[in-house]
Amino acid sequence: MEIGDFRLEQLSEGIFEVSQAGSIRKIRDLGKDTASDSVTRVGLDPVLIDTGNTAILLDAGLGMGLDNKEPEPETSNIVTNLEIFGYHPKDIGAVILSHLHYDHAAGLSYTNKADRICATLPNAKIYVQKMEWEAALQSLESRPEVQGMGYEPDDLYRLVADGRLVLLDKELQEILKGITVIRTGGHTPGHQIVRIRQNGQTVYYCGDLIPNELHLNRFVATKIDTDFIKARKARVLLMQQAWHDKATLLFYHSMHVKAGMLVRDKNRGFVLKKD
Length: 275
Ligand SMILES: [Zn+2]
Description:
Elements: E1 2-3, E2 6-10, E3 15-19, E4 24-26, E5 39-43, E6 47-50, E7 55-58, H1 78-84, E8 92-96, H2 102-105, E9 109-111, E10 117-119, E11 125-129, H3 130-142, H4 156-161, E12 165-168, E13 172-176, E14 179-183, E15 192-198, E16 201-205, H5 228-244, E17 248-250, E18 259-264, E19 270-272
Parallel strand pairs: 7-8, 8-11, 11-12, 16-17
Antiparallel strand pairs: 1-2, 2-6, 3-4, 3-5, 6-7, 9-10, 13-14, 14-15, 15-16, 17-18, 18-19
The chain binds zinc ion.
């Protein structure tokens, strides 16, 4: 997708099954693997932005297959997906993390042959909300029972020690000309979304505030948000703004429809525009 001078790509890591306890399994054959009621099926699509001067990632994926002694080394992850589009991990100058749940952040680090944790993207600064980092650390102490995918921030200490984490403390902050983070909270305390704006065109990367097109329905109840009321309010505000801006929404966890523009339906709700 072209937006002004920027080029955007969604980097698909495949389809996964998430159990209620938060374990995750890659689905190899959608026809053969039968879904049960206790699991949720999700896609997983970090976004690559090439601004012409630098390359930026929005979320970093699961990092499956990156670690030494990984049982499934042959799988798609942030490194293999960058390669497909002609990029090397060293090319990435920044990563904006919507939040620190491990399905968004684990791709940032891997364990090498000497069992050392290393940065997957050696030149990238990692932008995350300060509030989110604090919430992730707190969860290490309390280890609350969470539905779905939670925090596993231990590996991120490597990046903190290297001075790579940039902790943001404003609700609205432009990271690079045309790329702005907006703190929404709701899904997690410091969840943020990303607005990309170039030459009058707007794209919103929704993170887990609107993980897929099913969550456009404001009546959909979800157990994945730490603050359900706040998440719902932020979701509606985002949809109103995106509709007003005639913006394209990018979804991280969609299985099929990974992006689209909004139109209003007859009940004054929002649905994706059909081409
Ligand atoms: Zn999440």
